[in-house]
Amino acid sequence: MYSAEIQNRIKQFNPWLIEPDKAKEFIGHFLPDLYINREDENRPLPQNLALLIVGPRQAGKSTLVWHLLQRYLPEILFLNMEDPLLRLGCQPTAEFINLLKNHYSFIKAIFIDETQHLPEAGLVIKGLIDARLNLAIFVTGSLAFHLRSKTRESLAGRVTRKRLLPFSMRELMTNSHPPNPLAARHLSEQIMAHQLIYGSYPAVYLAKNSGEKIILLNNLVEALILKDVSDIFRIKRVDAFRKLLTLLAGQIGQIINFSELAAICQVDVGTIRSYVEILEESHVVKIVTPFAGGKRREITGAPKVFFLDNGIRNQLLNNFSPALDLRTDRGQLLENWVFSEIYKSAPLPAAIKYWRSKTGAEVDFIIEYAGKIYGLEVKYTLLKQPKLPRAARSFLDVYAPENFSLLNSSLEQEVTIGNRKVSFITPYGLSRLLYEIFG
Fold this sequence. Notes:
- The protein is 43% helix and 16% strand.
- It is an alpha/beta fold.
- The strands form 3 sheets. A 6-stranded mixed sheet has the order 8-9-10-11-13-12, with helices on both faces. The chain has a 5-stranded parallel sheet with strand order 2-3-4-1-5, with helices on both faces.
- Helix 17 (390-399) links the parallel strand 10 and strand 11.
- Helix 9 packs across helix 16 (330-345) and helix 16 runs parallel beside helix 18.
């Protein structure tokens, strides 16, 4: 039997169940004044499956679910797993399912938020789905790693997984509906200027001034270090973790050496690798490995690191100077921005890599998707003529990618080189290119 204390807590979190006529008013508190539609949010929801939304903290996961839940008002049950009593109420799973059947049989949707705090979260989700309660089930979690580590039960065939990251250029452009191409280009330049310096976490992007944006970014980083790392992952050497973050921020787009990082942080290599894994699973950084096409004269084992948000990276280095032409890291900022845009648009089966020969020839990004490969080189420079670097020509000759593009600051032109289409694009054209690749 469930205690009166737990049932009262459920009522406190779900006041619309008691006062259905005020449901929109209650739910409105969970939604921002300006809602920006997310990619693919209007696709039909899965039948007899849970929608599992994972991504970094404060990327808008809960906001997205509340937006989707409006169609089920007021028959919604909301459970926030940060609350100890509600966590207790979800276990054991069989008793929780009986509670739903006996007291909440009228609900049409259930939303379990912050699932990373729930022990054996996978078992709870599995039990809800297998019980066939005829409910729409929404689940969010900041740390996919933590969710998986708490259960050996596979959720394969039971969930549809959606990765939600900070706003992409395409999401922001689509939301603004620019009336003509000139306005669209101007808007894209404004958006990119913001993303290069402050990134595009929802609260940061919508903040009114730079001071507020910097405070929010600082809070995000501290939440990652102090809350996620210390409390959830129980990392003892928080100082080493913090130093590693700063070192990686200075090495975006560069080949990283785990042994060197370990020596600087004064920990062993295994610890550094585990820290990087945590950062990846927390959706802070992404390790990019070399494209191995089977040729003898290419590097196959040296990884690079990119941040999923430029704002987090700049906060770690305390550099928010908007004067890009005066910044020595402007090329890194642009390359990292391009990576983040690719990653936000890429379906889960897609792979993002880089190519480098043993002689030093390199292509920034190689995208593998649906049996095809695409090359993308990034240059923070003004081009006047459609000329490819020698490394790009080498890759084009050897691998004949489906498409090869060079993103630069000025030239927009499509040419044919060696019977292959080569596109010279500016940042304005990146969203269109990604749509052509991923749909």
